[in-house]
Specification:
TIM Barrel, eight-stranded parallel beta sheet, alpha/beta, binds zinc ion, binds (4S)-2,6-dioxohexahydropyrimidine-4-carboxylic acid, 13 strands
Length: 345
């Protein structure tokens, strides 16, 4: 049995760091293992302009733990008022690495998201011209669409039409949760990619709902049926260059998760690499972990892979904190429900 595994240092292509005290508390959990991360812009207020992104980037750098080497890859929050020339200037300066599309009301702090997709046509055309990726929260928000169908419906009603009307637009379908999402991304060319979280590789909807409601497994898009989880596992462990890691690690203090109207988000930054190694080992695919966590993402984002490496070692069950203390209260670390044996050395 393999006992150590050395791979290029991984990156996280979808991360929520928040701001202020929460940022300071959760940032070390990411910088311990990851070299870079695509930073989500759904702050309150959101990161709307290049100027906002520059200021947020400075706050992240100021919060880095001593000695940490980490590059935040900044994104802008797409609204119907986003200025194409600001996006282009932000990208040209190297600051802005992607633009994030939230359908209005789809998830946490998405109230400023899109209702009328035609209004952003000029921004999307500019992005296609300059090759700047659009990161998509792929769920429709219509009341009459069942929450478990929202991703599949989004592909037909929004994603595919937008891509057809904006040829050359480079799109990441983020945190894919369905076989439909996997099949769509896989069938497309190199302008289309998909991120997959660690938690969606572990849980299906039964984990959230059977035997009592588990608020720490509630995230958006919500975990689906087992057949979908298995499709995600196949895609992640296949080595297919369309797919790479985006943890969607999303901290919320426990009082807001364990609540009558609990927040969506799983906090996985602490143990994602241990979880992934365990899963890839279970699937006989440890040789594909590097592609998923460290190689495929940089290719899509047209960045070099990291030069340095991490080594994972296999041994007795790994212990990691079950909660991270923050000024806003404890944040529960994702519990995969089984022992983890791989540890980043
Ligand atoms: O579960 C989620 N939490 N999904 C998202 O899309 C947003 C995130 C958050 O910001 O908490
Ligand atoms: Zn997210």
């Amino acid at each position: 049995m393999t006992e150590t595994l050395t791979i290029r240092r991984p990156d996280d292509w979808h991360l929520h760091l928040r701001d202020g005290a929460m940022l300071a508390a959760v940032l070390p959990e990411t910088t311990r293992h990851f070299a870079r991360a695509i930073i989500m812009p759904n702050l309150v207020p959101p990161v709307l302009t290049s100027c906002d992104a520059a200021a947020y980037r400075s706050r992240i750098l100021a919060a880095l733990p001593e000695g940490a080497v980490f590059e935040p890859l900044m994104t802008l929050y797409l609204t119907e008022a986003t200025d194409a020339s600001d996006v282009a200037a932000g990208a040209a300066s190297g600051l802005v690495k992607a633009v994030k599309l939230y359908p209005a009301g789809a998830t946490t702090n998405s109230a400023s998201g899109l209702t009328d997709f035609d209004k952003v046509r000029p921004v999307l055309e500019k992005m296609a011209e300059i090759g700047l990726p659009l990161c998509v929260h792929g769920e429709v928000t219509d009341d009459d669409i069942d929450i478990f169908d929202r991703e599949a419906v989004f592909i037909d009603r929004v994603l595919d039409p937008v891509r057809r009307t904006t040829p050359g637009l480079r799109v990441v379908m983020e945190h894919i949760t369905t076989r439909d999402g996997i099949d769509y991304v896989k069938s497309q060319g190199p302008d289309m990619a998909g991120t997959i979280t660690a938690h969606h590789l572990v849980i299906n909807r039964n984990h959230i709902l059977v035997g009592g409601i588990k608020p720490h497994y509630y995230c958006l898009p919500v975990a689906k049926r087992e057949e979908h989880r298995l499709a995600l596992r196949d895609a992640a462990t296949s080595g297919d260059t369309h797919f790479f890691l985006g943890t969607d690690s999303a901290p919320h203090p426990d009082p807001l998760k364990q609540h009558a109207c609990g927040c969506a988000g799983c906090f996985t930054a602490t143990n994602t690499m241990s979880v992934l190694a365990e899963l890839f080992e279970q699937d006989g695919a440890l040789d594909k972990l590097e592609a998923f966590a460290s190689l495929n993402g940089p290719v899509f984002y047209r960045l070099p892979a990291n030069q340095d490496a991490i080594t994972l070692t296999r041994g007795a069950p790994v212990s990691y904190p079950s909660k991270i203390d923050t000024a806003d209260g404890p944040v529960t670390v994702f519990d995969p429900g089984f022992a983890l044996h791989w540890q980043v050395a």
